[in-house]
Specification:
This protein is mostly beta strands. The chain is built from 18 helices and 129 strands. Strands 22, 25, 26, 28, 33, 34, 35 and 39 form an 8-stranded antiparallel β-sheet that branches. Strands 23-24-27-36-29-30-31-32 form an 8-stranded antiparallel β-sheet, with no helix packed on it. α15 crosses α18. The chain is elongated and about 200 Å long.
């Protein structure tokens, strides 16, 4: 039977089958990080369901998402998918998920729903079937799980529809990628409002939800059993977002926040988003788990509760022992405060009364068992009945109560209020409901009461109270009852109030029943009673109505008489105080069951009878007469004792050995072992004698058998031949021994009879009889008849005869129940830290608590006051540190701890905890404000482009909270209204300013009511001046040991384009005195003129120095002043040894040499050592003398081993002092006996940045057989990447948590089991925080044109220790965070932005470089073409980089926004080099900033190979700086290498440069990698690099599975087994049907031997001429027949030292005998292959890769060249013949203007037009055509009268050769810029331009030669030109041959096609144009 009292509140019951909701608990993730799926079944079948789930709890702070799959009409599967960073996804805590389901097939009228399939990363539009009147609530979710890490995002929700996209969680920018597999997205839409669905529902839109929890107020009370779902409906920021909510402590509020995933980074701050949400209130009970658990009497089936029994408690009080067992479930109820009861009552015990229950005396009560022993819970509907007889009608008497034992809150109370029944309930909405009956009961009479709670037909909670069959009902409850199933107290006769009981009941309680249903209680009582009582139980018998001091006389129910005054607790009869019905019973359990009889009496079949020789007299047993064993009185004996016989009523002596005599004393029968003698008497038989009692007994060792005495066969003989003394058969489980005697078998023991053998019981049996255990020892139970076993949570110690509870468990009633060592309130204290950024909670004893999250350590009421994202961690086992979040509100008030989770390491185990609420005291002076203002020294109205800004951002003392600012104007030429200016920055528009001096002041106060003020003056200029600003502001405080770069900058340049000249000058001390040292020397510290670089020790402490920054641009000038106050740095005390154990067999040396003065001031450090022990102010040596008997003042303390006392705990401290400064470092050491062994770990000198990598090296002196083991002692879970059995432990970057304390212990163990341990502890920095968001001004603008100001306000250091703060602003590009400028002290930057949506970040870092990121997106318009039309790109770039720090960021902007030409690329490369070369040192942001620019330039299409190589060299130069390379930096550099190699098609030169970069990156990235560390891989699609660190013994003769290859390393590798070796394998993917290119390198970096690890810088170790080859498997998919193995040598592929050994289906195995870069290369051919063969061969990309060659162009050009020579020779002869036949001699040859070169004419041979018969006009035109053709270089060869055709042929051959050489050279260059594998005729535009350019060059070249020929008029010159042309053509032909040897086949074929095209075009266009020009010029 289910909860049948349920669904009555529905106004739309018909929707029951189409709308479902619920909560389900998902089990988190397993040890591998995978989610554990849970199936959810619908209550009703849904035809076409859409389900919206939402995570509704936050049990684990790591990010996680819910995923759904297998959705059908019956239900769906849910699982959790971890979205934390790698290595942090395992064992996520269970979370509750709410879900809401609708059926599309039967939707409510007001709702629309649907599904759509999405297969890409693009936005998809959804249009509603009908428009809503306004934007509805839209909920959506992915209904499938076909991809990992996918979510949905929405935007543009309006009345007609919305847009939705699949959000790829692993991307920083979220969307835009192609999704591998299709997903189904389900959605529903409904107008805002409250709906009467089942259940009652509310749909709303929340406008502003961020990463911080936002409180949503619901229209009704919301409890943990209600359902809440939500969807983010805007897209204000990317990075994998989803909503998450959980319940607040307020009844009608829900906390919700948007949670960014942590896959890309750990930072989770997010901009405000709009969230659509729905809440479902339980208006009535559903069939599900309304309370979250099933009540008593119900069983759980999935999410349902099924009732199995209604009567769950029934107790009739007729027992009088200490625990009462109620009849319904056998639960034990305890009386009073302890286990004592009748007859030894305590004041808290009720008194048992015969047939009238228990009497409660006014201090009595009964306890239900604790919840962990036997849970009892009420159902939402229940009935309580009770029979009571109160003594009076007092004020408030509680019959039954249940309280929350943590808070004392009353959950349920059934009581009598002045005689009126009353029920009090604590409802689910946290309201208290009370209902009083007006029917008053009558004291001193029996009354039948009941209380009934049920749900009426209106779905309202109703209460019914009954009194003696009269009822009253009430129904004004606002919610329903929901019980507690843990941590409660439940009591009869009183109520629990935290530490005591109160409101005691006084009177009788006879019976109590509890039904977990709406039960008809009136059926249990009747008025027709057998007696005269008014009401009685339904059996008709009245309950006795006697007072406690009366007894019932046995007539009517109220017939009573008074007990004897001595009976304090009542009686049963007159004169006897016993409560037992049996008059001889001393103690009984339920009146008629006797537990023990009175003296001289014994229990016989349940009744007490007097013992033999006694008879009952009054209420005891009296003695009978002498020799009488049974009598009725002393005078009347009924039975005599042995040796006496009864005669009448007296006893007489028997006759000798006669057992029966007659009256005459004649013996009738002899006693045993006696026989009659001849005299008629009895005598002892043979072998027997008379004993002292006069009996005949067998002699010793003989048995009495059948009246005789015989020799026995043994105790274990079953069949004995007594006469012969032989045993025929042994008893069971026995056998004869060597002597023929029977004895028990092994494992069997002698039985109770002494003649049987039974199996032994185990040693936990305390009473074993005849092989059966009658009683098991403490905390054990009978598992088998002779075997006892320890109960659950108990164990048996060796040789122990009983069991002991496990640690953390306590023995209660034979069980081991979990308990905890709770702290007492007096054992806890708390105070604020000195900076008021933390609360330190101290405990007087060690805590064993493992929790490190505030959520589990701090009560919710105090957690809300700790600010945003507080952090809790354990500094040690007695100190918890609470790092307060921003804007905390807690003050000097109680900090409520979660006492359940904070327990002692040792102490009394208890079930009850106390409230731990230590007051957070103000131990130190409250934080004071230090107001600091910064502003430009002067402000030019003419030049300024923005308002005058005066900033108070550098002020300190906020102590984690907001500061209040009050601005005022003190002076100035114009009055300015500042009433609205309340922020940290005063902004005044220039329109409100006039020329002159202004003075402003600010009054600043913090949350602790501390304040400060400061004023500043600004000179406002009307004229054009430069406004110089300093990023540190106008004043800064530093330590003398600090190193800092302070930068001056100008934001507005008055519209001028010339460069700015900066300068710094030292102006003196602020007090006008002479400064010590040489402060002016600071000016020359930096190469950059705008930077003031202060190095450690440059400035002495105790002074304020003034520096001036100036800027000059043409005639414009500006200046600013900086005041630098220098303070002393604290000394640093250091000890080489950490806390732990030392051996008394080894001298102790404590080394403080590493202590230092950061200021390096004059003087030396002084040391003072002390030593104390617990409870002593000194340390005691083995002799009893002081360990430090003299003053120790050196830096090293040495103590002989003989003085170290075993077992002592020494606490050594060293105090380091210098001038007035002091520092102290202490270490606690325990002395143990471990011989000469020693372990040592240096103590950290300072706190650690959580982003750092940590390598802890253990120094060990011991045996090689010893072992080391590391384990974590304190702190958040931290997993090393090295095995914990190594003598070192390594933690990777970003593996630690901010603001946490960590302790790790190293233990050195010997084979014999002895050990030596040492513990190292450190804490991580808290880091900075900002109250403001990343802002961008102006709000709109154009790319590369608008100057945008990026800024962030109100930032502070989390622990107020690590100032100043540094700011860097940048872009997220392809998942990389790339700053736009190096970090600066200013919280703003002016920069250009990219077109489109920019994902921006602000990185805020403290002086330890712990950084926080703040993100936002910002849309920017397209590139402004007007600016680029007015100026070249180079000019615009130079204008934008007047601030030199903006160079890399501006390069990135231009590369990403424009397609750059060579001029711009050259300019930018030059500026980038200039920027890099001016760097003195580098930080991570500057590094990423520069590498981002390098990567962007390398990716530019027009960046040529030479420039790219320069960029790689620049990246290599950057790696020369000392900087830790993190994974993201390595990935960015690898990405640059990928762009480089892919762009130039794995060109050999580029390939070698790329490999150099990768190796250098990994050498830095692997700087601290240790043997056994986890290998690291960076995979960037086209390039993948793998690197591992090991010692050779672990990789020699081993096959490693690396990337897509297997690497087998031989035994003979030339490494020592102690070497630390890095193995690096880089794989380059090639497009098409080619093998991967792999580079194998080895690097050495130190040694590792025994326990000693020595790491050194990595250096390349080349392997050559190996005797055994290294085997590499290379992926390959081609026919291997035409390929061979090659390696890259001097930019050429060489086959030696590399052989193919095996060909597999998808790979090739190669053997190499040296390290290098390897690939498979086509085999070289010596002869020309056919075209058919050529097409079958793979065509490699370029010659460097060993591809096949083609000489087509060479053959073609050779033919043309030979043809040219032949023609020249032939036509030269023809010319000679013509010359000889000429009429006119040679000397008459003249050059004419209308003929080319040589034209023969004569003076005496003239033919007139008339003689030829052709008209003169026609002849003239023909002559022109002929002349034009003769001028054509090619066509002239075919004109009959063309002179000098030999010369023409030579010129033509030369022209074609030069044209081919030009085209070939250009192709050579083009090949390096085109990474695609070309097909024949696949010519690009660039190549077409090359063709035309070559033709143009030839045109000019030939024109020059022909002009030379015109000027050279001799024949010799003509011959010379001819020969020269042939020589030039030959050279060009040779160059073409070289090019052919370099080109791959496909490129040569393309060249051939281009060359043929060029020849054709040259003939048709270029030569024709040249002929036309000659004709026109020379006609």
């Amino acid at each position: 039977m289910l909860f049948q009292f349920l669904v009555l509140c529905l106004k739309f019951r018909e929707l029951l089958a189409s709308v479902e909701f619920g909560r389900v608990t998902l089990e988190g993730t397993d040890s591998s990080g995978d989610g554990i799926p849970t199936r959810v079944d619908f209550q009703n079948s849904l035809i076409d369901p859409v389900v919206i789930p939402t995570i509704a709890t936050r049990n684990d702070l790591r990010s996680i998402v819910c995923r759904m799959y297998n959705l059908d009409s019956s239900g769906f599967n849910l699982t959790l998918e971890a979205t934390s960073q790698a290595g942090q996804t395992a064992n996520h805590s269970p979370e509750e998920v709410c879900y809401f389901a609708v059926d599309i097939a039967q939707l409510p009228d007001s709702m629309q729903a649907g599904k759509l399939n999405i297969s890409d990363g693009n936005w998809n539009s959804v249009t509603f079937d009908s428009a809503f009147t306004e934007a509805p609530v839209v909920l959506a979710f992915v209904q499938t799980m076909n991809n990992i890490l996918v979510n949905i995002r929405m935007k543009n929700v309006n009345s007609t529809g919305f847009e939705v996209v699949l959000d790829e969680l692993s991307r920083a920018d979220g969307v835009g990628d192609t999704i591998p597999n299709e997903e189904i997205v389900g959605w529903l839409a409904i107008p805002e409002g409250v709906y009467e669905f089942e259940p009652r529902s509310e749909f709303r839109i929340e406008d502003s939800v961020t990463h911080e929890r936002t409180s949503i107020t619901t229209s009704e009370s919301f409890t943990d059993s209600h359902v809440f779902v939500a969807t983010i409906s805007t897209f204000e920021g990317p990075e994998g977002l989803h909503p998450r909510g959980y319940k607040t402590s307020t009844s009608n509020q829900i906390w919700i926040y948007v949670e960014e995933n942590q896959l890309v980074d750990e930072e989770q701050k997010h901009r405000s988003e709009v969230v659509s949400w729905a809440a479902f209130y339980t208006c009535c009970y559903t069939y599900g788990l309304f309370q979250g658990f099933c009540p008593t009497g119900f069983s759980r089936d999935s999410e349902n509760c099924t009732k199995e029994e209604s009567l769950v408690f029934h107790m009739t009080l007729n027992q009088i022992n200490d625990t009462i067992q109620e009849q319904a479930r056998g639960m034990e109820i305890y009386t009073g405060e302890d286990s004592s009861f009748y007859p030894e009552y305590r004041t808290t015990d009720p008194w048992a009364a015969y047939k009238r229950g228990y009497y409660f005396s006014g201090s009595s009560y009964m306890k239900f068992p604790d919840y962990f022993e036997s849970e009892f819970t009420f159902a939402p509907e229940f009935t309580i009945t009770a029979w009571v007889r109160p003594d009076s009608n007092s004020n408030q008497e509680v019959l039954l109560s249940k309280e929350d034992r943590t808070s004392g809150k009353t959950m349920l109370e059934f009581s009598l209020d002045s005689g009126n029944p009353k029920l009090k309930l604590f409802l689910k909405n946290s309201e208290v409901f009370e209902f009083n009956s007006t029917d008053s009961i009558v004291p001193k009479t029996w009354n039948f009461l009941w209380a009934k709670v049920y749900i009426n037909s209106d779905s309202n909670l109703e209460v019914e109270l009954g009194t003696n069959l009269n009822t009253q009902s009430g129904s004004n409850a606002s919610s329903w009852y929901s019980d507690l199933n843990s941590d409660y107290k439940m009591t009869l006769g009183a109520k629990w109030n935290l530490n005591s009981y109160q409101n005691f009941y006084e009177g009788f309680l006879y019976e109590l029943r509890i039904y977990n249903e709406n039960f008809d209680a009136s059926s249990l009582a009747v008025q027709a009673c057998s007696g005269s009582c008014e009401v009685c139980p339904n059996d008709g018998d009245c309950i006795l109505s006697c007072d406690i001091d009366e007894f019932w006389t046995g007539t009517d129910y109220d017939s009573c008489d008074t007990c004897d005054p001595s009976c304090s607790y009542g009686c049963l009869r007159p004169g006897d105080c016993s409560l037992c019905e049996d008059e001889l019973c001393e103690e009984c359990s339920n009146f008629d069951t006797c537990l023990s009889c009175k003296g001289n009496s014994t229990d016989h079949s349940g009744a007490c009878e007097c013992d033999a020789g006694y008879f009952q007299q009054d209420y005891g047993c009296a003695e009978c007469g002498s020799n009488c064993t049974r009598c009725s009185s002393p005078e009347v004996c009924l039975e005599c004792s042995d040796d006496y016989y009864l005669l009448d009523t007296s006893c007489y002596d028997k006759c000798g050995f006669c057992s029966n005599c007659d009256a005459n004393n004649t013996c009738l029968e002899c006693v045993n072992n006696a026989e009659k003698n001849q005299q008629g008497g009895c005598q002892c038989v043979e072998n027997s004698t008379e004993d002292q009692n006069g009996d005949c007994v067998c002699n010793q060792g003989l048995l009495s058998i059948a009246g005789g005495c015989y020799q026995p066969c043994g105790n274990f003989c079953a069949d004995c031949d007594y006469e012969n003394g032989n045993c025929n058969k042994c008893v069971s489980n026995a056998q004869e021994n060597a002597d023929g005697v029977c004895e028990c078998l092994e494992g069997f023991e002698i039985g109770s009879s002494g003649d049987s053998c039974h199996q032994e019981c185990n040693d936990l049996c305390s009473n074993c009889v005849d092989g059966k255990c009658n009683q098991c020892a403490t905390l054990s139970y009978l598992k088998f008849e002779n075997i006892c076993e320890c109960v659950d949570k108990a164990f048996q110690e060796p040789d122990a005869l009983e069991c002991t509870c496990n640690s953390g468990y306590k023995s209660v009633s034979g069980k081991c129940l979990q308990c905890k060592n709770y702290f007492q309130p007096s054992e806890v204290s708390a105070h604020f830290s000195e900076k008021y950024t933390k609360i330190l909670v101290g405990f007087s004893a060690e805590s064993s608590t493992s929790f490190s999250s505030c959520q589990y350590l701090i009560d919710e009421s105090s957690l809300e006051k700790l600010g945003q994202n507080p952090k809790c961690t354990w500094k040690n086992s007695t100190m918890m540190v609470v790092s307060l979040g921003s804007n905390f509100t807690i003050r000097e008030e109680p900090l409520k701890l979660n006492a359940f989770n904070i327990v002692k390491k040792e102490g009394e185990c208890s079930f009850d905890h106390f409230n731990l609420e230590p007051v957070a005291e103000y131990k130190y002076p409250l934080p004071t404000i230090s107001a600091k203002l910064s502003a430009p020294y002067s402000y030019s109205i003419a030049c300024a482009t923005k308002s005058l800004q005066i900033s108070a951002e550098k002020s300190t003392g906020r102590a984690g909270g907001s500061l209040s600012y009050q601005w005022s104007q003190l002076s100035g030429p114009s009055s300015i209204d500042l009433s609205t200016q309340t922020g940290s920055v005063l902004s005044i528009p220039k329109t409100q300013l006039s020329g002159g001096n202004y003075t402003f002041s600010v009054f600043i106060s913090n949350n602790f009511d501390r304040s400060d003020s400061e004023e500043i003056s600004v000179e406002v200029e009307e004229a054009e001046t430069l406004s110089v600003e300093i990023d540190a502001g106008n004043q800064i405080s530093i330590k003398s040991g600090d190193s800092l770069k302070i930068k001056a900058f100008v934001e507005s340049f008055c519209g001028k384009s010339s460069s700015v000249q900066y300068a710094w000058n030292y102006e003196g001390l602020s007090n006008g005195e002479e400064a010590p040292g040489n402060p002016s020397g600071v000016i020359g510290n930096s190469k950059q003129s705008h930077v003031l670089r202060i190095k450690e020790g440059d400035l002495q402490a105790g002074y304020t120095y003034i520096f001036k920054a100036t800027a000059q641009e043409g005639e414009s000038y500006g200046e600013a002043f900086l005041y630098v106050t220098v303070e002393s740095s604290p000394l640093v005390a250091a000890l080489k040894k950490a806390d732990g154990q030392i051996s008394n067999g080894k001298d102790l040396q404590l080394d403080a040499n590493k202590s230092y003065d950061p200021d390096n001031s004059e003087g030396s450090l002084e040391f003072e050592w002390t030593c104390t022990e617990p409870s002593k102010n000194y340390c005691e040596s083995t002799s009893g003398e002081q360990l430090l008997d003299t003053e120790q003042t050196g830096s090293i303390l040495q103590i002989e081993s003989e003085k170290l006392r075993p077992g002592a705990f020494y606490y050594f401290c060293v105090k380091v002092s210098k001038d007035t400064r002091e520092a102290e470092k202490c270490v606690e050491l325990e002395v143990v006996e471990m011989g000469s062994r020693e372990i040592e770990i240096p103590n950290p000198l300072f706190k650690i940045n959580h982003q750092w990598e940590v390598l802890i090296l253990l120094s060990v002196q011991g045996s090689l057989e010893d072992s080391v083991q590391w384990n974590q002692v304190l702190g958040p879970s931290l997993t090393p990447t090295t095995p914990v059995s190594n003598p070192y432990v390594y933690f990777s970057p970003n593996s630690m948590a901010l603001g946490s304390y960590y302790s790790w212990q190293a233990t050195l163990s010997t084979p014999g089991g002895s050990s030596l341990a040492m513990t190292i502890s450190w804490n991580t920095n808290v880091g900075p925080s900002c109250l403001g968001d990343l802002e961008v001004s102006p709000s709109t603008g154009s790319a590369l044109s608008t100057d945008f100001e990026l800024s962030i306000l109100d930032c502070f250091d989390g622990d107020e220790e690590d100032y100043p703060l540094f700011y860097s602003f940048g872009l997220v590009r392809n998942g990389f965070y790339i700053p736009l400028a190096p970090p600066r002290l200013s919280n703003k930057v002016i920069t250009k932005l990219l077109p489109g949506t920019n994902t921006l970040f602000a990185m805020v870092c403290d002086s330890m470089w712990s950084c926080e990121y703040y993100m936002r997106t910002f849309a920017v318009g397209s590139v402004s073409r007007r600016r680029l039309e007015e100026k070249s790109v180079s000019q615009a770039f130079l204008e934008d980089t007047k601030d030199p720090e903006l160079i890399p960021g501006t390069v990135l902007m231009y590369c990403e926004s424009l397609e750059l030409e060579q001029e711009a690329i050259t300019t930018m490369l030059s500026k980038l080099k200039e920027f890099s070369q001016n760097l003195e040192d580098i930080d991570e942001a500057t590094y990423s900033n520069t590498i981002g620019a390098i990567s962007a330039m390398a990716s530019e299409e027009n960046t040529n190979e030479s420039q790219t190589v320069q960029l790689v060299d620049l990246a290599l130069y950057m790696l020369n700086f000392e900087l830790e390379i993190l994974e993201k930096d390595a990935q960015l550099l690898m990405d640059s290498a990928k762009s480089l190699t892919q762009k130039f098609s794995l060109n050999n030169r580029v390939l070698k440069k790329s490999q150099e970069l990768i190796s250098k990156v990994f050498n830095r990235y692997f700087k601290n990698s240790t043997p056994g560390d986890q290998p690291r891989t960076i995979d960037l699609d086209k390039i993948t690099t793998y690197r591992m660190t090991e010692t050779p013994e672990n990789f020699k003769n081993t096959t490693l599975d690396i990337l897509d290859s297997n690497l087998t390393l031989p035994e003979s590798l030339p490494f020592s087994n102690n070497d630390v070796v890095d193995i690096e394998l880089t794989s380059y993917k090639q497009a098409g049907n080619y093998s991967d290119i792999v580079d194998l390198s080895f690097f050495k970096g130190g040694s590792y031997s025994g326990f000693n690890l020595d790491l050194q810088d990595r250096s390349l170790y080349s392997l050559n001429n190996l005797t055994e080859p290294i085997t590499i498997e290379i992926p390959f998919h081609n026919n291997i027949g035409n390929w061979s193995c090659g390696y890259l040598k001097d930019e050429e592929w060489v086959e030696e030292g590399c052989q193919i050994s095996e060909v597999r289906s998808n790979s090739v195995i190669i053997n190499v005998t040296h390290t290098s870069t390897f690939s498979l290369q086509p085999k070289k051919v010596d002869s020309v292959v056919t075209a058919e063969e050529e097409t079958k061969q793979p065509l490699p990309k370029n010659s460097e890769e060993g591809c096949s060659k083609s000489f087509y162009p060479l053959y073609m050009l050779s033919i043309l060249f030979v043809l040219g020579i032949v023609l020249a020779f032939k036509f030269s002869k023809t010319d000679k013949v013509k010359e000889q036949s000429a009429v006119v001699p040679v000397k008459d040859i003249t050059f004419t203007n209308n003929e080319d070169s040589y034209v023969h004419t004569t003076n005496n041979e003239k033919v007139s037009e008339e003689e030829n018969g052709v008209p003169e006009a026609i002849k003239t035109e023909l002559q022109k055509s002929k002349t034009f053709m003769q001028n054509h270089l090619t066509f002239g060869l075919f004109v009959k009268d063309t002179p000098s055709r030999g010369l023409y042929s030579a010129l033509l051959a030369m022209e074609f050769m030069v044209l081919g050489a030009l085209i070939g050279g250009a192709m050579w260059l083009l090949e390096d810029t085109d990474s695609e594998d070309k097909d024949l005729f696949d010519l690009s535009f660039e190549e077409a331009k090359t063709l035309l350019l070559a033709m143009g060059i030839c045109l000019v070249f030939m024109g020059v030669i022909e002009v030379v020929l015109k000027l050279a008029r001799s024949k010799g010159s003509v011959i010379g030109v001819t020969v020269g042309c042939l020589i030039i053509g030959g050279v060009a032909l040779g160059f073409s041959g070289y090019l052919c040897s370099e080109f791959c086949g496909v490129w040569s074929q393309i060249w051939a096609c281009m060359c043929l095209s060029g020849v054709a075009l040259e003939v048709l266009l270029s030569q024709t144009l040249r002929a036309l020009l000659k004709f026109l010029i020379f006609k």
